[in-house]
């Protein structure tokens, strides 16, 4: 059965595991109201969370590789194109509204 | 700041849309790794990092005004985090907040906090400091952190130490606080 009354040290270690494993949303939704209050009011948690993020970054970020940056840049370019199209469509719509009906 | 990045930044803040678009590729190549590492602090998942970065770069292309007076790489990282990355990070979690017990403010602080002094340091600097700090820990504390960094779960660490999961979590928590104090002393009480 899931532990629903975790102390602050358990909450922090579970946060660290979730961050490392890339499942923060699951961690957030696992929190009960009391646990969430405990985290929100704990200065120790926020201090420790900063170190956890650094440990996570030093330990794992370098291993996170992007095989092809060019592929990523083309993804961004496609995103920019789609935003341009949206902006154009939006301005056309506005123009169409302003045209008097014949 | 290196010349390539400086030129890319110059192109990025140009009023002409197409020039800005052409400047994006060198800018992305020069900054992608750094931005991704910052994001990895908060997401811990490379696919999510890339998806979010895609939006961040498009936002930068659309509204680059904040980058106009940036003069150093550190300043660039801080500005991009504060004005572009943090907003997107918060959006990732805003949708699910309906089902959570956090207030919006507490959630924001947890998933997209302000950058501390430590998080502004370069990876090599952090790695160097961390190595020194780990050397100052007790053998058991150091081993627990090292195993965690190798990807061990608390239960696996408990098996290794022949103790309980609760004891391991307490050990990790105390060790992390100890590391926090050491980092604070290193940064001169920051």
Description:
The complex is a heterodimer of chains A (102) and B (190). By secondary structure, chain A is an all-alpha fold. Chain A has five helices and no strands. The model of chain A has no long low-confidence stretch (mean pLDDT 81). Chain B folds into two domains: 3-111; 121-186, Winged helix-like DNA-binding domain superfamily/Winged helix DNA-binding domain (Arc Repressor Mutant, subunit A, Orthogonal Bundle), CATH 1.10.10.10. Chain B has nine helices and no strands. The mean pLDDT of chain B is 85. Chains A and B meet through helix 1, helix 2, helix 3, helix 4 and helix 5 of A and helix 2, helix 3, helix 5, helix 6 and helix 7 of B.
Q: Name the chain pair whose interface involves the most residues.
A: A-B, 56 and 65 residues
The separation of the N and C termini of chain B measures 26 Å
Shape of chain A: elongated
**Helical run tally of chain B:** 9
Report the β-strand fraction of chain B as a percent range: under 5%
Tally of strands of chain B: 0
What number of domains of chain A? 2
Question: What can be said about the biggest beta sheet of chain A?
Answer: none
The helix tally of chain A amounts to: 5
Radius of gyration of chain B: 20 Å
Helix content of chain A: over 70%
Helix content of chain B: over 70%
